[in-house]
Hints:
Two copies of one chain form a homodimer.
Chain A: H1 6-22, E1 29-34, E2 39-44, H2 47-50, H3 57-69, E3 77-83, H4 87-96, E4 100-105, E5 130-133, H5 137-150
Parallel strand pairs in A: 3-4, 4-5
Antiparallel strand pairs in A: 1-2, 1-3
Helix pairs in contact in A: 1-5, 3-4
Amino acid sequence: xxxxxxxxxxxxxxxxxxxxxxxxxxxxxxxxxxxxxxxxxxxxxxxxxxxxxxxxxxxxxxxxxxxxxxxxxxxxxxxxxxxxxxxxxxxxxxxxxxxxxxxxxxxxxxxxxxxxxxxxxxxxxxxxxxxxxxxxxxxxxxxxxxxxxxxx
Amino acid sequence: xxxxxxxxxxxxxxxxxxxxxxxxxxxxxxxxxxxxxxxxxxxxxxxxxxxxxxxxxxxxxxxxxxxxxxxxxxxxxxxxxxxxxxxxxxxxxxxxxxxxxxxxxxxxxxxxxxxxxxxxxxxxxxxxxxxxxxxxxxxxxxxxxxxxxxxx
Lengths: 152, 152
């Protein structure tokens, strides 16, 4: 059992987010880590680069992790992402049955976990991961703020 | 301008759904059609075959259509699907800015349009397509019912 701290994993997600931003995509990054502490997949937002409206960091990380594990359910894994997931990604996280979701910045406008559709709070939601928000919140939010300021 | 009727397009989606069912996946199919009447993409549920929890028919059709059009926004297109989309797919439909969503069977348990998260009704939802439900509802629902009965 490796001892990865939440902030250490979030720093990996932040590096993915930074790479996305340098490439012109909104800087959001994600990491899937097994409960044993192994990194199963990385993901970064590629919506602009791929011209794909579904290419959020979480979606790409989930798909890559499912391929890596060889299973559609990631019950023995946690998903880390620099920004509160939207409703699309939150529902994908529920389908994948992650043990835990850890995110950095809160997203009152686009979020679907603590805001908006609040996917995991729906009575019909198939699975509710443990949710931890605000890990390295300042760094994750600052990266987004700087990105949008530079583009105004 | 071709004159494709909604039921004609839904029959294409039903053929995709049937193919999914024959391959052991829950029989759901989707079609993206341009407002000019051209089929831009087909999609069928591949969750079991691909071991990918995000591989819903709509997600695959949206990604294929975005590649086909070369743009992340499908404002001049409609999405047809045999089953009411879940919250993940509904949010993807909003991101892609489809003009219209047409679906067959209603899904009180897993749907995210007329049920559950009701994605398009959220004040923060970025885009609300026109929604038409119940096209070939009987055929679409029967296909699912038979699939699950045979597996019990």
